[in-house]
Design goal:
Layout: E1 2-8, H1 13-24, E2 31-37, E3 49-50, H2 51-54, H3 58-64, H4 73-86, E4 97-98, H5 102-133, H6 141-150, H7 156-162, H8 166-178, E5 186-189, E6 192-195, H9 200-209, H10 218-231, H11 235-248, H12 253-265, H13 269-282, H14 287-299, H15 303-316, H16 320-333
Parallel strand pairs: 1-2
Antiparallel strand pairs: 1-5, 3-4, 5-6
Helix pairs in contact: 5-6, 8-10, 10-11, 10-12, 11-12, 12-13, 13-14, 14-15, 15-16
Organism: Streptosporangium carneum
Protein name: DSBA-like thioredoxin domain-containing protein
Pfam family, one: DSBA
């Protein structure tokens, strides 16, 4: 069975339109549709506020612009209203609230856990319809629980209060960032993806022509995702992704070196130094670990201690970055 993952936010009108078009694509019973979390406006306050009021806040306007980067939020709302009418989403159309959607994503994740893709899709449709056509506040837990129950998912009031689904949603948000999801909606099948509310024909072609994802051990996938998060300048996210590996494979040099990079990137310099010193005890010829230790000491204002490590790294590698680091360290250490 093929799986199409839809990375989307429940407050993204294009995601709601994309869902309608995905339904029209009639992909067949051998294709599973799974909804994954994406937050357009992750800084939305826990206490929901009116959308018109939020649009006067430059921070909120910037976040909502992610729905369609080439249009202002007002232009996007006008355009999407026309498309929604064509898709017969209504009769009334238009969100009135700016909710934080993290809890909504928890409910959606729990729907899949409880009843698979069919129940999850029913919950997604109910939440989107409530937000866009009924003026409901899907940031309110009582409202979420009631809407989920209407879609066939009971017990969400207690689940939300207990924190269920929190770890899963956080993990999936990091995974989405690691694989390059940058807008809502994004449709992913294997190693192929398309963004935006695509036509049914495009979605059918995506499923039919998608390149299968190579099956890798979970540990390898986790390591690659952590590396991608570091490349995306999210060292704390990389550490969160590495946590299971550090718990289960803490002696693996590749895991520890990646953790050291994340510690360095998040200014946890003591942990970075300890990890790198431990690595170099076993592999003193690792020039990158040696270089990173020198940089860590340098950032800790221990320039005299940093210099020997940077010189050794430069002697072991022709990387010009190493030579430049030696020069700067010499100047700061007065050597």
């Amino acid at each position: 069975m093929k799986r199409i993952e839809v990375w989307a936010d429940m407050v993204c009108a294009w995601a709601y339109i994309g869902r309608q078009r995905l339904e029209k694509a009639e992909l067949g019973e051998d294709v599973e549709v799974v909804w994954r979390p994406y937050q357009i406006d992750p800084m939305a306050p826990a206490e929901t506020e009116p959308l018109d009021e939020a649009l006067r806040d430059p921070v909120a306007e910037g976040a909502l612009r992610a729905c369609h980067p080439t249009l202002t939020p007002e232009e996007n709302r006008e355009r999407v209203s026309l498309v929604a009418a064509e898709e017969r989403l209504g009769p009334r159309w238009g969100a009135v609230w700016r909710p934080n959607t993290f809890d909504a994503h928890r409910v959606i994740a729990l729907a899949y856990e409880r009843g698979g893709s069919a129940l999850q899709d029913a919950v997604v449709e109910r939440l989107m319809r409530a937000h866009f056509t009924e003026g409901a506040d899907i940031g309110d837990r009582a409202t979420l629980a009631a809407l989920a129950a209407e879609a066939g998912l009971d017990g969400m009031a207690r689940a939300l209060a207990s924190g269920r689904g929190t770890a899963e949603v956080r993990s999936q948000l990091l995974r989405g960032k690691a694989i390059g999801v940058a807008t809502s909606p994004t449709f992913v099948v294997g190693r192929s993806a398309v963004s935006g509310a695509q036509s049914p024909e495009v979605l059918r072609d995506l499923v039919r022509q998608a390149v299968p994802e190579r099956e890798l051990p979970e540990e390898v996938t986790c390591l690659r995702h952590a590396e991608a998060l570091l490349d995306a300048r999210d060292p704390l996210g990389a550490l969160e992704m590495l946590r299971p590996l550090l718990d289960g494979h803490g002696d693996d040099p590749a895991v520890r070196l990646l953790a050291a990079r994340a510690y360095f990137g998040s200014a946890q310099l003591g942990r970075a130094r300890q990890t790198l010193e431990s690595l170099l005890e076993r592999a003193p010829g690792d020039h990158y670990a040696r270089f990173l230790l020198g940089r860590t000491l340098e950032r800790s204002n221990r320039h005299a201690e940093a210099l020997p490590h940077l010189r050794m790294a430069a002697a072991m590698s022709s990387d010009p970055e190493y030579a430049g680091a030696v020069r700067r360290a010499q100047e700061r250490a007065g050597a």
